[in-house]
Design goal:
globular; mainly alpha; about 65% helix; single chain
C-alpha cells in the first residue's frame, strides 16, 4: 500500500553548503539561515545575488566559520516550510497573512516611537530629526507598496493571466514592485547611517531603546518579506509567464 501525504515540503538542508552559492539560494534552501546572515550583516534579499564567498570576503570573516554556523542552523530547521515549490497563490497569501499583516501592526507603533524620540531628544542627539523624516517616507512607501501588491499584483498570480496584454502588464507591475524594494532598502540604509547602525546609546531612555528594537525587528522581517518576493515568488511567476 502506498501512503501519500498532503503535508507541505520542508526546507532542504541535505545539500552541502557551497561557498559559490548565492546568499539568496542558501536562504531559499533553508529559510532559517537568514538568522546567520542577519547577525553578520549580510544582505540576502536585495543584495542576495552575491556568493557566500564574496559576502564573507566583504565582511572579512572566514568562510569555514560561517559554513559551520549555517550547518548548526540546518540541524534545527527541519520543520520549516519550503516555499520554493509552493503554488504561487499560496505563497502570495502567506506573504499577505504574515509579512503584510506584521507591517500593518508594527509600522504605526514604530512610527510613533520614532516621532516621540525625535521630539524629546532631537535637539541634542544628531540624526534623530532626519531619521523621523526618513522613517515617515519609508512607512508611506511600504503602505503604498503592500496595497498595490494586494490590489494589483497578487490577484494576477493565481491563476496567471492568459492574454498577452495582461501578461505584459503583470511583468511591468513586478518590475515596479522590485524597484520599490530597492527604494525601501536604501531608506533603511540611511536610517542605519543616522542611528549608528541601531546601536543603543548608554544613556538611551526606555522609548529610545524600544524604538531601536522595533527598527531591528521590522528590518529583519522585511528582509524575509523581500527575499520571498524577489527570489521566489516573482521569478517563478515570470518564468511561468515565459514558458506557458
Amino acid at each position: 500500500m502506498t501512503i501519500t501525504s498532503d503535508a507541505p515540503p520542508l526546507a532542504d538542508s541535505s545539500r552541502p553548503i557551497d561557498a559559490t552559492s548565492t546568499l539568496s539560494q542558501l536562504v531559499i534552501d533553508v529559510p532559517a539561515r537568514s538568522r546567520v546572515f542577519e547577525t553578520l550583516g549580510m544582505d540576502f534579499c536585495c543584495g542576495g545575488g552575491v556568493s557566500l564567498a564574496e559576502a564573507c570576503a566583504d565582511k572579512q570573516v572566514d568562510v569555514a566559520d560561517v559554513v559551520e554556523l549555517l550547518e548548526g542552523i540546518d540541524k534545527i530547521a527541519g520543520d520549516e516550510r519550503d516555499w520554493s515549490s509552493a503554488p504561487l497563490g499560496e505563497l502570495a497569501r502567506h506573504i499577505v497573512d504574515t509579512h503584510h499583516a506584521r507591517l500593518a501592526e508594527e509600522l504605526p507603533h514604530v512610527q510613533m516611537l520614532v516621532a516621540k524620540v525625535a521630539r524629546a531628544h532631537g535637539a541634542r542627539r544628531e540624526g534623530l530629526v532626519e531619521a523621523r523624516v526618513v522613517f515617515d517616507q519609508m512607512a508611506a512607501a511600504l503602505r503604498e507598496h503592500t496595497d498595490a501588491e494586494e490590489r494589483d499584483v497578487f490577484p494576477l498570480l493565481d491563476p496567471l493571466p492568459e492574454g498577452a496584454a495582461e501578461r505584459e502588464s503583470l511583468r511591468e507591475l513586478v518590475g515596479r514592485m522590485t524597484d520599490d524594494h530597492d527604494e525601501v532598502t536604501a531608506l533603511f540604509e540611511r536610517l542605519h547611517e543616522l542611528l549608528d547602525d541601531f546601536a543603543t546609546p548608554e544613556d538611551a531612555c526606555t522609548s529610545h531603546r524600544a524604538m531601536l528594537d522595533g527598527l531591528i525587528r521590522l528590518e529583519r522581517d522585511l528582509h524575509l518579506h523581500v527575499h520571498q518576493e524577489n527570489h521566489i515568488l516573482f521569478p517563478r511567476a515570470l518564468e511561468q509567464l515565459t514558458t506557458a
